[in-house]
Amino acid sequence: MRPNYPLKCRVTVRKEIMEYYLAAKDKLYAYFKTIDSRFSATMDMWTSIQNKGFMCLTLH
Fold this sequence. Notes:
By secondary structure, the chain is α+β, with helices and mostly antiparallel strands. It has one helix at residues 10-33, and strands spanning 41-47, 53-59. 40% of the residues lie in helices and 23% in strands.
């Protein structure tokens, strides 16, 4: 680890992640509004035997 690397407080990190998420969501919604066709989205989540989480998003 680099001792001179500035660590951010958890509140700052959460705020930055939420800002990034909201910007990406707005960008995605704007893109979907430009599409003239319809689509369907489904999502599935599960946990493997090794206790790893997975999420699948399918658009058609």
